[in-house]
Amino acid sequence: MGDQAAAVVVSPHAGSCGATVTGVALATLDEAAFAVVQQAWHTYGVLAFPGQYLAEVDQVAFSRRIGALENTDLRRGEHGSRPTTLTLANINRRGQLVSDPNHKLNQFLRGNQEWHSDSSFKRISAKASMLVALEVPEVGGETEFTDMRAAYDALDEATQRRIAAMVAVHSAAYSQHQAMPDAPLNPEEEQNLPPVRQPLVRVHEPTGRRSLFVGRHARVVEGLGDVESRTLLDALLEGACQPPRVYSHRWSAGDAVLWDNRCMLHRGRPWDSAKARIMRRTTIAGDAPAGTINEWALAEQ
Ligand code: OGA
Ligand code: MN
Asked: Which of 33, 80, 203, 272 could bridge across to 5 with cysteines, CB 3.0–4.6 Å?
């Protein structure tokens, strides 16, 4: 084992998910050390790397080692923008704090406070996401994660059997309406994001474990009525996101957190919008089935 790989310390959290990783510099990780990190990530679902202070280019470069980045412009770059990072912050384009909790920007940010898997409303949903904390409030603003493999394992057998072949329809228009009823998707976004089918149970490829796939973008279960669907989806989500399956990350500036959207749900926690919270996210695109392409994956630029 190389020096870097030998120096990696993986400390699993109490409960069934997540680990904190120290003894690494993500900006300069060699292949062997990257392999150790990736293995831990597959096992624990979410890894916290305190005090990395990653520059944007280094965040992008590290994320690309997990896979091609996803285009986070919901208009799919049709206006020439093909962003590799997304800033999630209560700061406007002029760099000013947006403290009004009812401002659209804060409504949008609050959407992330419902349990979800990033881009589950895309035909091929995201593989991973990485958040880097640039500025965080002293109180609140944690991010919580739940391991949906453990949540699946915790279901009784009758429920496992009942949902085995079920498909949920995930829709960005739906979740946007729930979060921001006055700001529907624009026509281009609607066109690029038709409702998609996602199995309720998926297999997490790296570990072969079954995982429950629900969250805020799931609108309805195929073959069930609206009420029955909602009851089932809410019950699955509510049952899943409970201790000991939840890890709550209390941010410090400089932290990087990498999670696996294929087997984890996450949500942000509220904070006082009069305090700045500035986070930089990269999203790693899901793998397309062999021989096909993921229309949301960005070619290297
Ligand atoms: C995200 C997200 C929650 C948070 O970046 O995908 O949901 O706590 N963030 O900022
Ligand atoms: Mn998210």
From this structure: 33
